[in-house]
Amino acid sequence: MNSEHEASAGDPDVWQLRLYVAGQTPKSLQALANLQRICEEHLHGRYTIEVIDLHKHPRLAKQDEIVAIPTLVRKLPDPIRRVIGDLSNVQKALVGLQLVPAHTP
Amino acid sequence: MIGITASERPSIPKAPTGIHGLDDITGGGLPRGRPTLVCGSAGCGKTLMAMEFLVRGATDYDEPGVFFAFEETADDLAANVRSLGFDLEDLAARDKLVVEHIRVERSEIEEAGEFDLEGLFIRLGLAIDTVGAKRVVLDTLETLFGGFDNEAVLRSELRRLFRWLKDRGVTAVITAERGDGTLTRQGLEEYVSDCVILLDHRMFDQVSTRRLRIVKYRGTMHGTNEYPFLIDNDGFSVLPLTSLRLDHEASNERVSTGIERLDAMLGGGVYRGTSVLLSGTAGTGKSSVAAYMAAAACERGERCLYYSFEESPSQVLRNMRSIGLDLAPWLENGLLTFVSTRPTFHGLEMHLATMYKHIRDLDPRLVVVDPISNFVSVGTANEAHAMLLRLVDFLKSRQTTAVFVSLISGAAATEATEQNISSLIDTWVLLRDIELGGERNRGLHVLKSRGTAHSNQVREFVLSSRGIELRDVYVGPEGVLTGSMRLAQEAKEREAAENRRLAIARKRREIDRKRRALEAQIAALRAEAEIEESELELLLGAEEAVERRLQSDRVGMARSRRADAEEEETA
Q1: Which residue intervals make up region (Disordered) (chain B) (predicted)?
Q2: Is the pLDDT of residue A7 over 60?
Q3: What confidence category does residue B303 fall into, taking pLDDT thresholds of 50, 70 and 90?
Q4: Of the residues B227, B448, B450, B482, which has the maximum number of CB atoms within 10 A of its CB?
């Protein structure tokens, strides 16, 4: 549940991302790999990724209202955004994280 | 009935719902350890039924439950069911119930690739483990279809979910919206095939009725009809006819109707706890008889509940005062309770439910329903019949005497009620108009009275400021005469009787006179005879004198002849 990357928390420019997975499934591994690639490309040095395995911490599922797995939650900046799936569709993932405007082709 | 017999044979294990009536229909409850689908249109009570299943399970059967709400928050749910007496917070505090809101907000979710619903499984698993739940409700799972785009994933995940629920051995209730032409909008019945219950909330003539039907129940027999159900202050209740048994006690006690001659016609009144039907065309005095019966009950110190569906209580009071019956004292001391609503105000089920509630709360000994005819305007004749059947049975089981007033339409006093409830009725008093000689009068007769040697005669029924009076009608060669015809006939009869009396007196006088004349005649004849007798005596006397004279003459002559010898001979 760590996987901190280069930036310190509390900085308003730093993106706090949380990835909820359930065990080391191919989908979750895929999701994490895809996420790291997207972040390196678009948010280099301005992000933290927290991976939460719900099988180890089931109570957090209720707290963050997780239904689908994997779910990526953008805690910061506001507002909270959610992207579900293994992030293989990069375009949709970028739209979901508001890293590109929704209407961009 | 089917359900009851089914429960006697070994069938699949069942989890009692604790919902009044539902366990009768299902033969003991929902299939234990399997999912049950409850479907129906919006507002038909799916959530409530599911919630009651959980609450009853937690309180009555010691089976903790988990409620997963996809549409409402836990706070909203708790507030909604508090009016039914369910305290979810208390149950949650005692670890009997978990209510969890699953928020799926389409606008906040972006799908980017493959996913599954493992998060839901984890949350459900955690909730089940927290309280050791035996029962699970998912309300309404279909909301998920609005939250996610990838339907193929959803469907395979739902299939997995139901299998998972079965593996966990929990008795689950899944609610679903009714679709167009299908049981559920998303075809959930495809996954849940053990037990499907359909709830219906239909409008008929602008009045709503709720119904429940078990579409299928694998591995067991079940009631197949549509059963009306109610949602009231005490929760959900299904009203199967078949759960009512005919095993009520029959009382031998007679209760007076308050009308002396009617009591006499009925052999001393009606039996306690029976049902009385007063039927008749408009204005035949049905309500008046009912009010008399109510007043008689109050006079005996018994509580009486009076449903007045056409008149307000003050109107009833005023009208009854006009026939010399003052109900006000009973109203004041609380023995008499009026309930006045328009029948169309509620659906039939709601009526029945509120009536049950009133009757349970007040525990009256006599219940008057005036009139039952209006119920037909709320539902169909069949529904009204079913409702009255349940009401009659309910009252009988409580040993409460029931008085139903039924208006018969049509000019002819038919011996049928629109509700066809004659078979439910123990004593049927028919009031009818007798139109004769340019006036209408009221006639009353007892059509039937079970267990009673009742009078077979028609009585004239007179309403006056002195109250109700029953009079013998004149039955003559011209038929039944009532009212002024009867009075005229009675006058005629009186006159005829007077004439007869006079004739007899005259005859008597005549005979008297004749006798006297005869006696006079006898006296005259006797006098005549006496005269003749005395004449005879005179003649005899004269004759004797003549004889004596002749004798003396002869002696004198002999002496003068000196015939001594002859003298001796003749001497």
Answers
A1: 1-20, 551-571
A2: no
A3: very high
A4: B482
- Could you tell me if B68 and B206 are in contact, meaning their C-beta atoms sit under 8 angstroms apart? no
Residue range(s) defining the domain that contains residue A74: 15-96
Find, in chain A, the residue whose alpha carbon is nearest to that of B154. A68
CB-CB: which of B113, B120, B147 is closest to A86?
B113
Last residue of a domain, one of B212, B243, B274: B243
| Secondary structure element (H or E) that encloses residue A73, with its range | strand A71-76
Find, among A23, A24, A38, the residue nearest to A83 by Cα.
A38
Contact by Cβ (8 Å): B61, B73: no
* Domain that residue B225 falls in: 2-243
Contact flag A82-B109 (C-beta cutoff 8 Å): yes
Number of other residues whose CB lies within 10 A of the CB of residue B9: 9
In a domain, B66, yes or no: yes
Nearest to B111 among A55, A69, A85 (CB): A85
DSSP state letters, B357-411:
HHHHHH--SEEEEE-STTHHHHS-HHHHHHHHHHHHHHHHHTT-EEEEEEEPPSS
Residue in A18, A24, A67 to test binding to B, most B beta-carbons within 10 Å: A67
Phi/psi at B38 (5° precision): -115, 115
Q: What is the ipTM of this complex?
A: 0.86
Residue A76, domain CATH:
3.40.30.10
- Give per-residue pLDDT as tens, B106-117: 887 888 888 899
CA distances from A80 to A15, A16, B56, B115, B287 (A): 11, 10, 39, 20, 70
- The C-alpha atoms of residue B402 and residue B365 are separated, in whole angstroms, by 9
Q: What are the pLDDT digits (tens) for B4-47?
A: 444 445 678 889 998 877 887 888 889 999 999 998 888 888 88
Q: Based on the domain organization, do B263 and B327 belong to the same domain?
A: yes
- Identify the contact set of chain A against chain B, taking CB-CB distances under 8 A: 20, 22, 27, 30-31, 34, 54-55, 58-59, 61-62, 65-71, 80-90, 92-93, 95-96
| Cβ–Cβ gap B126/A62 under 8 Å | yes
- Compute the nearest-CA separation of B144 from chain A (Å): 10
Mean pLDDT, chain B, integer: 83
What CATH number is given to the structural domain containing B261? 3.40.50.300
Instruction: Say if residue B442 is in the same domain as residue B379.
Output: yes
Q: Which amino acid is at B445?
A: H
What is the C-alpha separation between B278 and B444, in angstroms, rounded? 10
- The pLDDT assigned to B6 comes to 41
What distance in Å separates the CA atoms of residue A20 and residue A50, rounded to the nearest whole number?
8
**Nearest CA to CA, how far is A92 from chain B (Å)?**
5
Q: How many helices (H) and strands (E) does chain A have?
A: 3, 4
Residue B535 lies in a domain: no
Find, in chain A, the residue whose alpha carbon is nearest to that of B126: A58
* CB-based burial label for B323 (10 Å; 0-12, 13-18, 19+): middle
The Cβ of residue B561 has, within 10 Å, a number of other Cβ atoms equal to: 10
Do B172 and B291 fall into the same domain? no
CA distances from B569 to B420, B546, B552 (A): 128, 22, 15
Average pLDDT of chain A to the nearest whole number: 81
Instruction: Mention every residue, 6+ apart, whose C-beta is less than 8 A from residue B31.
Output: B12, B13, B14, B15, B171, B194, B195, B217, B218, B219, B220
pLDDT confidence band for B340 (50 / 70 / 90): confident
